[in-house]
Amino acid sequence: MHRRFLITGAIFGLTAVIFGAFAAHGLKETISAESLNSFETGVRFQMYHAFLFLILGGFDFLTEKKINWVYYLLLTGVIFFSGSIYLLSTSSLSGIDFKSIALVTPLGGTLLILAWAILLLNFIKLKKK
């Protein structure tokens, strides 16, 4: 069991629910429909990866080196992807132009893709029982 995966998954799940409720009740009337849709995309991806952290926390099929790679790729990927979307979609409220960090979003997505690819390759290598 990987405690840090479980803790990170719980934190990401908790904050995804909070951000989702905030979007539904607090942002709905204050940002454009397009920005709200983007914000909700960030929430969805954060929640999907919260579940992945929780699932991976209960299994022990990767080497320590690979589990570290997956952990940090997922952690950084979620923060970059969802975090940048949150900032970009609420920039009209804060008055801060976050367009300079727009490239962080695809970088975060790429890190998530790499983590999933590592998982896939390791699943393929698992021996049949």
The number of strands is 0
Summarize the main sheet. none
Mean pLDDT: 93
Stretches where pLDDT is under 50 for at least 5 consecutive residues are none
Keywords: Membrane, Transmembrane, Transmembrane helix
Main location: membrane
Membrane topology: Multi-pass membrane protein
Subcellular location: Membrane
Question: If you had to describe this structure to a student in words, what would you say it looks like?
Answer:
Belongs to the UPF0382 family. Its main location: membrane. It is a multi-pass membrane protein. Keywords: Membrane, Transmembrane, Transmembrane helix. The chain crosses the membrane at residues 47-63, 70-89, 101-124. This protein is an all-alpha fold. The chain has one domain. The chain is 79% helix and 0% strand. It has helices at residues 3-27, 33-57, 64-89, 91-94, 104-125. α2 (33-57) packs antiparallel against α3 and α3 (64-89) runs antiparallel to α5 (104-125). The relative contact order is 0.14.
Short summary of the structure?
The protein is mainly alpha-helical. Helices cover 79% and strands 0% of the residues.
Key features of this structure:
single chain; 129 residues; mainly alpha; 79% helix
Q: Topology of this structure?
A:
Layout: H1 3-27, H2 33-57, H3 64-89, H4 91-94, H5 104-125
Helix pairs in contact: 1-2, 2-3, 3-5
